[in-house]
Specification:
Elements lengths: L1 H10 L8 H17 L4 H18 L6 H17 L6 H13 L4 H11 L6 H17 L2 H18 L4 H12 L9 H10 L3 H29 L9 H4 L5 H9 L4 H10 L8 H11 L1 H17 L4 E2 L15 H7 L27 H10 L11 E2 L8 H19 L3 H29 L5 H18 L5 H35 L1 H11 L4 H15 L5 H16 L6 H11 L11 H9 L6 H24 L2 H10 L2
Antiparallel strand pairs: 1-2
Helix pairs in contact: 2-3, 2-22, 2-23, 3-4, 3-22, 4-22, 5-21, 5-22, 6-7, 6-20, 7-8, 7-9, 7-11, 7-20, 8-9, 8-27, 9-28, 10-25, 11-26, 11-28, 11-29, 14-15, 16-19, 20-21, 22-25, 24-26, 27-28
Length: 636
C-alpha cells in the first residue's frame, strides 16, 4: 500500500494542473489500496465508481449529475443481467459442488496412488493428477485445496515426504482449475474482453495439460535427485488385496488376467469360481480393447468419409431475386404476360432504368425456365470413400502394439487397480469430456453444456449414494452465494469501467502506452509483468474485472489476438493463488494442516511451482500454437 500511495504522489500533478483523466488514475490507485485494506471488492468498485461518475457528470452539468449517475448505474447493472455468457457461471459452480459432495476424491486419490506407485514421488504425482481432475470437474479452488489438504497432506507427511514439497504440490495442483476448462476465469475474461468462451476453452486445454505435466516432471526430478524428500512407497503401502476368485486363478492358472480368465472359462474350472464372475471380469479386462476399437473406428470413418459433390451451375443464394427484367424474359423463352389494356400500363422506364420486376414474374420465370432448377442444387455424396492415409495405419499399429504390451503385463493386481479407476477416475473423466467436448466442437453453448454437467453431477451423486435433500440444499445455497459474488463483481466493475472512461483515465493510459513506441512483444511482456505483480496483492477476480478493461482496448493497436492474450493472462493468474501476501491457496491449506506446519513453509514450498508457471508462460510466448492450434483446427 505504501508503494501505491507514494507512487500516486510522485506521478500525480499539482491540484491546479490535475485533469479529469488524472482523477481516473487516482480512482484506480484508491481501489487497489481499499481492496488491500480488506474492503469488499464488489461494493468498493460500485461505491467509488458511482462517486467518481458523479464527479465526471458534475464537471459538465451539475443540475443533471445525480440523474445521469443513477441512470448509468441502472444501465450497467442491466447490461450484466443481460449477458448470456454469465449464465454458465452458476451452472458450472453447481456442478462443482455436486461433484465435491459425491465423495469421489478419496477413491480417486487412492486408485491413482496405487496406479502410480512405481513412479518416483508417486504420492505427489497422484496428488497433482487428482487435483487436476477434481479442479477441472469443480473449478472451486478452495474446495480442492482443502479436501486434498485433509486427504493427501497427512498421507505424504506420514510417508516421509518433505513439508515444502507436499505443500507446494497440493497448492499448485489445486489452482489448476483456474486454467483448465471449464474455468470460471475464462468465462469472466470472455465476458469482459468480448472473446468467445468456446474458443477460450479450446485454447486453454493444452496449456493446462502442459502446466500439470511440468509439475509432474518437477516432482519426479526432485524425487530422483533427493530421494529423502519423496521416498518410495513401502511394499505394504503398495499392496492390493485380491478377491478370492483372483487368488484361486492366479495360483492354479496364471497371474496374467487374459490367460487366467480364458483358461478358467475354456478348461476345467474350479467349482469355487462361478462362470458369471469369470465372464464379467473378462468383459472388464477387454474394455481398453473396446475403447481403442471405438476410437480408431471413429477416426477411420471420419478421415475416409466421401466428399460431397455439388452439381455445376450453382447459383448464389438470393441471385434469383435480383434477376433483371431482360434476364427474366430471356430465361422464360419469350413467354410473357400479354400487354395490359390502354390506360392501365405502367409508365415506361426512363433511360438507363431497369423495368420493375414483380415477384410473380420471378416465380413464373423460375417455373418456366429449365435452368431454374439449378438455383437450389442438392449436394450428393460420392459412392467411393477416400483412400486411407498411411498415418492412420501407423497409428493403428502403434495402438495394437500398446494393447499387446498392456495385456502382457496385465496381472490380477493391476485388474483390481483398473476396477478402482473405473469407479472413480472414469466417471469424472466421462463427465468432463462430455462437457468440454460439446462446448469445443460446437454441439452446445457453454450454458447448455454447464446444464448438462450439472445433471451429470446429480447422476454421479445418486450413483454413489450421496444424493439427498440436505446435499442438494447445501449445493444450491453455496452456488447462489458464489454466483451472487461473481455477478456483483461484474456490476461493480462495469460501473467502475464506465467511470474510468468518463473521466478520461483510459485515454491517458492509451496515450502513454502508445508514446512508448513499443513492439507487440514488448507490450505483451510489460502487460504480463504488471499482471504478475498484481497477483501478489490482489486475487484473480479483481485483476480480471478491474484491469482487463484497461489492457483490452490496447490490443488492437498492437495487433494482438485477444484470444492469445487471454490464454497468457489465465496462465499468469495462477500466481494470484500462489503468491504472498494474499496466496489464498496457502491460507486454505494452513487451515487444515497439522499445527507444526507453518505458513512460511507453505510459502517456500510454492515458490518452485511459481517458477514453473513463469517457464510455462515463456513456452506459450515462444510456441503460441500450444494454445492456438486447437481453436484454429476446430474453427478454421
Amino acid at each position: 500500500m505504501a508503494v501505491v500511495v507514494i507512487g500516486v504522489f510522485i506521478v500525480m500533478p499539482s491540484p491546479s494542473q490535475m485533469t479529469t483523466g488524472h482523477l481516473g488514475l487516482l480512482m484506480l490507485a484508491m481501489i487497489v489500496v481499499a481492496i488491500m485494506l480488506g474492503f469488499p471488492t464488489a461494493f468498493t468498485l460500485m461505491g467509488m465508481g458511482t462517486m467518481f461518475t458523479w464527479f465526471a457528470y458534475y464537471s459538465v452539468n451539475p443540475e443533471t449529475a445525480v440523474r445521469q449517475t443513477l441512470d448509468l448505474m441502472v444501465l450497467r447493472a442491466y447490461a450484466v443481467m443481460n449477458n448470456d455468457v454469465l449464465v454458465a457461471v452458476p451452472l458450472f459452480v453447481f456442478m462443482g459442488f455436486l461433484v465435491q459432495r459425491a465423495n469421489l476424491i478419496e477413491r480417486l486419490f487412492q486408485s491413482l496412488h496405487l496406479a502410480t506407485s512405481r513412479i518416483p514421488g508417486s504420492l505427489a504425482v497422484a496428488t497433482i493428477v487428482t487435483c487436476a481432475i477434481f479442479a477441472t470437474a469443480t473449478g472451486i479452488i478452495g474446495a480442492v485445496v482443502t479436501l486434498m489438504g485433509l486427504l493427501a497432506f497427512p498421507a505424504m507427511l506420514k510417508a516421509g515426504y518433505g513439508i515444502r514439497l507436499s505443500a507446494g504440490t497440493i497448492t499448485a495442483g489445486g489452482t489448476l482449475g483456474i486454467l483448465i476448462p471449464p474455468s470460471v476465469l475464462l468465462i469472466l475474461y470472455g465476458a469482459t474482453a468480448g472473446v468467445s468462451v468456446v474458443k477460450l476453452y479450446a485454447g486453454a486445454f493444452f496449456p493446462g495439460l502442459m502446466l500439470a505435466a511440468l509439475y509432474i516432471v518437477y516432482v519426479i526430478v526432485v524425487a530422483k535427485i533427493w530421494p529423502s524428500l519423496a521416498p518410495p512407497l513401502s511394499e505394504e503401502d503398495r499392496r492390493v488385496d485380491l478377491p478370492k476368485f483372483a487368488e484361486i486363478i492366479a495360483k492354479t492358472r496364471s497371474k496374467n488376467v487374459m490367460a487366467g480368465l480364458i483358461g478358467a472359462i475354456k478348461g476345467k474350472r474350479n467349482a469355487d469360481v462361478p462362470m458369471r464372475t469369470l465372464v464379467n471380469h473378462l468383459g472388464i479386462a477387454l474394455l481398453p480393447t473396446f475403447a481403442a476399437a471405438l476410437l480408431m473406428g471413429s477416426i477411420y470413418f471420419s478421415i475416409t468419409a466421401p466428399d460431397y459433390i455439388v452439381p455445376e451451375g450453382v447459383v448464389e443464394m438470393g441471385a434469383a431475386a435480383t434477376t433483371t427484367a431482360e434476364e427474366i424474359k430471356t430465361e422464360a423463352g419469350g413467354l410473357q404476360e400479354p400487354e395490359e389494356a390502354v390506360g392501365l400500363k405502367e409508365p415506361p422506364a426512363e433511360a438507363g432504368q431497369e423495368a420493375p420486376v414483380t415477384p410473380g414474374a420471378v416465380a413464373e420465370a423460375q417455373k418456366e425456365s429449365p435452368e431454374a432448377e439449378s438455383v437450389q442444387p442438392v449436394a450428393t455424396a460420392s459412392s467411393e470413400r477416400k483412400p486411407t492415409p498411411t498415418g492412420y495405419w501407423v497409428s493403428l499399429g502403434i495402438v495394437m502394439a500398446a494393447l499387446a504390451i498392456f495385456y502382457a503385463i496385465f496381472t490380477f493386481v493391476r485388474l483390481e487397480i483398473f476396477k478402482m479407476l473405473l469407479s472413480s477416475f472414469f466417471p469424472l473423466a466421462v463427465l468432463i469430456l462430455a462437457v468440454l467436448g460439446t462446448i469445443i466442437f460446437g454441439l452446445a453453448t457453454p450454458g447448455e453444456a454447464a446444464a448438462m454437467g450439472s445433471f451429470g453431477g446429480l447422476v454421479l451423486a445418486a450413483a454413489y449414494g450421496q444424493l439427498n435433500f440436505r446435499m442438494v440444499k447445501e449445493s444450491v445455497f453455496l452456488t447462489a452465494k458464489t454466483s451472487a459474488m461473481v455477478c456483483w463483481l461484474f456490476v461493480g466493475s462495469s460501473i467502475f469501467a464506465a467511470a474510468f472512461a468518463l473521466l478520461g483515465g483510459q485515454e491517458i493510459i492509451n496515450a502513454w502506452v502508445k508514446s512508448l513506441d513499443m513492439t507487440p512483444l514488448q507490450f505483451l511482456l510489460l502487460a504480463q509483468v504488471i499482471i504478475f505483480l498484481l497477483g501478489w496483492p490482489l486475487e484473480w477476480t479483481e485483476i480480471i474485472v478491474i484491469f482487463m478493461p484497461i489492457f483490452v482496448p490496447l490490443l488492437a493497436h498492437f495487433q494482438i489476438d485477444p484470444l492469445f492474450f487471454g490464454l497468457l493472462v489465465a496462465l499468469n493468474l495462477q500466481t494470484a493463488f500462489l503468491s504472498p501476501p494474499v496466496a489464498m491457496a496457502a491460507l486454505y491449506l494452513k487451515g487444515v494442516a497439522p499445527p507444526h506446519v507453518t505458513l512460511n513453509q507453505i510459502f517456500l514450498g510454492m515458490m518452485p511451482f511459481m517458477a514453473i508457471q513463469v517457464f510455462a508462460i515463456f513456452l506459450l510466448y515462444v510456441f503460441p500454437q500450444i494454445g492456438l492450434w486447437l481453436p484454429g483446427l476446430i474453427y478454421k
